[in-house]
Specification:
With about 230 residues, this protein is an alpha/beta fold. It is built from ten helices and ten strands. It is globular, with a radius of gyration of 17 Å. Bound molecules: adenosine-5'-triphosphate. Keywords: Amino-acid transport, ATP-binding, Nucleotide-binding, Transport.
Length: about 230
């Protein structure tokens, strides 16, 4: 579904990705783990068109999407649930969800998807007219997830979905992400919480200073003594 080869990206003089290659198969949940600043977010930003690659290729669903802008990537079926949630604080919950579907021209299916988001996240249904900025952190995360799903994506990318959430909400959020995979979508998950990510993923890549330094199933990486030492607290 997604094939990244030798991807290089940077910000001005900073080189953030120094030749990343990775694959995500259709229907898989793949995790990217690694320390702060390793290049995980930049990888997602390159896929969704928020940063332009300097070299390398990104193929998605049989097409070359390298250098697509964000609207083109979204139209191709990529949804990005960014770090920090980034809901539109002064817009209602309903309008935030509508923004997720802004490129779609199939109002009947959009309506069905909206009903589904409200039934999956009853708190959002109760608060549909409330300004998104007044929701709790966990509710804003649910809204960001719901908004991403409103584009009917083939690939959903989550950047640090558990950041700043209470432990019970973290568990719930990761269960929802797993459910999105179980529902047939392909998921690419960036998580600071490496242990949780490795437990729920099918496959994982460990990124350090802009390179993939290890790859394997979640179970493989959980059992790896070096990974345990550096990322899982021994
Ligand atoms: P984090 O969990 O902190 O987001 P990350 O693994 O996602 O870490 P990136 O955000 O991809 O890492 O950052 C990779 C490198 O690029 C880091 O050295 C970072 O300082 C740098 N970087 C990221 N965003 C910018 C930016 N907007 N301008 C300049 N440098 C940046």
């Amino acid at each position: 579904m997604l094939e990244i080869r030798d991807l290089e990206c940077g910000y001005g003089p900073v080189s953030a990705l120094k030749g990343v290659s990775l694959d995500v198969g259709a229907g898989e949940l793949v995790a990217l783990i690694g320390a702060n600043g390793a290049g995980k977010s930049t990888t997602l930003r390159a896929i969704s068109g928020l940063v332009k690659p300097r070299a390398g290729t990104i193929r998605f669903d049989g097409r070359d999407i390298t250098g697509f802008d964000p609207a083109q990537a979204l139209a191709a079926g990529v949804a990005h649930c960014p770090e920090g949630r980034r809901v539109f604080p002064y817009m209602s919950v309903a309008d935030n969800l509508a923004m997720g579907a802004y490129l779609r021209r199939d109002p009947i299916l959009v309506g069905q998807d909206l009903d589904r988001v409200y039934s999956d996240f009853p708190r959002l249904a109760e608060r549909r007219r409330q300004a998104a900025g007044t929701l709790s952190g966990g509710e804003q995360q649910m809204l960001a997830i719901g908004r991403a799903l409103m584009s009917r994506p083939k690939l959903v990318m989550f950047d640090e979905p558990s950041l700043g959430l209470a432990p019970t909400i973290v568990e719930q959020t990761l269960r929802i992400i797993r459910g999105i995979r179980d529902g047939g979508a392909t998921v690419l998950l960036v998580e600071q919480n490496a242990f949780a990510a490795l437990e729920i993923c099918d496959y994982a890549y460990l990124i350090a200073t802009g390179r993939v330094v290890k790859r394997g199933t979640g179970a493989d990486l959980l059992a790896d003594p070096n990974v345990r030492e550096a990322y899982l607290g021994g």
